[in-house]
Amino acid sequence: MAKVLIPTPLRQFTGKQDSVTVAGATVGEVLNALTAQFPDLRKQIFNDEGKVRSFVNVYLNDEDIRYLSKDSTAAKDADTISLVPSIAGGSTVTAPPAATLSNDEILRYSRHLIIPEVGIEGQQKLKAAKVLLVGTGGLGAPLALYLAAAGVGKIGLVDFDTVDFTNLQRQVIHFTADVGRKKLDSAAEKMKAINPNVEIVRHEVALTSENALDILKDYDLVVDGTDNFPTRYLVNDACVLLGKPNVYGSIFRFEGQATVFAYEGGPCYRCLYPEPPPPGLVPSCAEGGVLGILPGTIGLIQATETVKLILGIGEPLVGRLLLYDALGMRFRELKLRKNPECPVCGAHPTVTKLIDYHQFCGVPQPGSAAPDRETKVNEGEIDVVELKEKIDRGDDFVLIDVREPHEYRICNIPGAQLIPLGEFPKHVAELDAAADIVIHCRSGVRSAKACAVLRQAGFQHVRNVVGGILAWSDKVDPRVPKY
Ligand SMILES: [Zn+2]
After folding, report:
1. Which one is catalytic: 342, 345, 441, 451?
2. Which residue spans within 173-312 are E strands per DSSP?
């Protein structure tokens, strides 16, 4: 006898029971007895040769039976057997409810309806689909516009940001007149204008470990358009835990990546990157820049994969990482394998619920230590106004700018010595450990790292300029351009 836990998608074959206790000395015998009792379940679990289907994992307690004695693994009375189909809530088992199309919609989607691979049935699948876009920035903008135009029935948007002038170079869903508005309002308005049939759900929150599962659970698939590591790992883990495909894209300067994670037993983000890079190693778009067109290319690859997954056509970008190099105008593909040791999707997961992703990635919680130009000045920091007074008094101190030379050419604070952060460690020896040192960058993040390097090296009088040259432009010299 053993207890078999029935996952949600398979409960329709067990009279809605979530667990069934059946007799058998081995896992194979238990499953045979179970499917004798519920014949409709048999073809979901076994193939024609009577072997367990490759996309159904069978666990005895915590162990995958592939790593035990497979079907012959002994099952005792107290044992629990779990059936884990690799796509939970997926379309392979349950077809989406058929949505009917109005005459207006038939006309609107005419160019879809005449493709045999889409047709009216495919368009109905799109209408019935529920897609969550995490972020309405660079990647989210083309995604939101095209998925709305294509007729995806329900699109959720997660964002709590407002439109900024520096967004307009790439976030084409937001217009100049939208600067200062909530991104959610701006995006939803454009999507509705393109296609009033689309239902748009606004989640005006930062995605966190507390709310992610609750938000994601209502959607069929999730599209990751985030720009930071804590949210990427959060989205990945939440998708794996919920069994939702995660359509991934990332961008930096002239290069992009795309793939589909957590789909039908395929690899997840942690299989590819088990751990985040150390904080500061990989700069963000705000720090490193991005070609404005690049998120269009990558976002539309994500949109294409999203539509293919909904329609169930083509070969999904699963187990393959697509790399795009805009300068060379080349696409490359790398094989991605599921890591059996993966901490979240592997055979023995250690991450079984959402964790603290800011701590995991070694970055501060947004708001806690962010370079907010209005926040108070802490120990080891200096305000731009105080810095100006210091310069005007002619104090004996060293002012260091740790930005890049091309940033220095955009604007600089007179008298600052340029030492880019990447070259900083090798210049430490040239600095006087007893000197009064003040370090700035664009917003205060990189300079905080440089300060930490010096303090580690035993420097006593090191201060970080709160808010960087952006704060200098705001509070001291408005002629200094912000970028
Ligand atoms: Zn994984």
Report:
1. 441
2. 199-203, 221-224, 246-252, 255-261
Whether the predicted pLDDT of 450 surpasses 60: yes
Could you tell me the distance, in angstroms and rounded to a whole number, from the CA of residue 227 to the centre of ligand 1? Answer: 20
Once rounded to an integer, what is the mean pLDDT over residues 151-161?
97
Query: At which residue do the structure tokens 């420097």 appear?
Result: 459
State the average pLDDT over residues 278-295.
79
Identify the active-site residue in 285, 345, 411, 451. Answer: 285
- Active-site residue flag, 285: yes
Average pLDDT over residues 200-211: 97
In a domain, 185, yes or no: yes
CATH of the domain at 25: 3.10.20.30
Are both 186 and 294 inside the same structural domain? yes
Q: What are phi and psi of 134, to 5 degrees?
A: -95, 105
Task: Tell me which H or E stretch contains 392.
Answer: helix 384-393
Q: Are residues 152 and 205 in the same domain?
A: yes
Neighbours of ion ligand 1 (CB under 5 A): 268, 270-271, 342, 345
pLDDT for 80 equals: 87
Ligand 1 centroid–CA 475 distance in Å is 47
Number of domains in the chain: 3
Provide the CATH number for the domain around residue 386: 3.40.250.10
Does the active-site annotation cover 345?
A: no
CA–CA separation, 134 and 157 (whole Å): 6
Q: Tell how far the Cα of 476 is from the centroid of ligand 1, in angstroms.
A: 49
Q: Per-residue pLDDT for 96 more than 60?
A: no
- Residue 53's domain comprises 2-85
CA of 266 to the centre of ligand 1 (A): 8
**pTM here?**
0.70
% of the chain exceeding 70 in pLDDT: 92
